[in-house]
Amino acid sequence: MTDVPAPGIERTLVLVKPDAVARGLTGAILARYEQKGLRVLALELRSIDRGLAARHYAEHVGRPYYPGLEDFIVSGPLVCLVLEGERAIAAVRSLNGATDGVEAVPGSIRGDFGTSKSLNLVHASDSPESSRREIGIWFPHLVA
User: Fold this and answer.
1) Rounded to two decimals, what is the model's pTM?
2) Rounded to whole angstroms, what are the CA distances from 60 to 38, 70, 102?
C-alpha cells in the first residue's frame, strides 16, 4: 500500500539518534515538530545494523569520517519517523538547527540540547530527492 501526500505537502524522514534517545529527549523533540504543525505519519523505535546504516548514509560511505558515523548510528536504539506538512523539509531542518550544537541557535533542537558536532541528536532529509530515497529505506510502504 502506498500513500500519496496531498498537493503542496512534503514528507521528510527524521531520525532521533541514539544519543537523544539515551538522554530521554524523544518526547521533547517530537513535541517541537508537532507544535510546528507537522503531522507524524509513521514512527518506530528500532536498532539498526551496519547494512542499514550504509544504505541510509550511502553518500558518506568511504569518506574518512564514515566509520565513526556508522559506529554512532548503530550504537543504540533510535526513533525513525516520517513527518508531513507544508515545506516539511525546510521546517524540520530549521527546527533541528546547525549540525554543531554549540553553533546552533538557541530555540533549535541542537541549540537547546546539543553540545557536539558528532553526537548531534537528529537527522533530517535535506531535499525532496533524499527524502524519497530515505523514506523508501525506512518506510517503503509510504513511497509512491
Assistant:
1) 0.94
2) 28, 10, 23
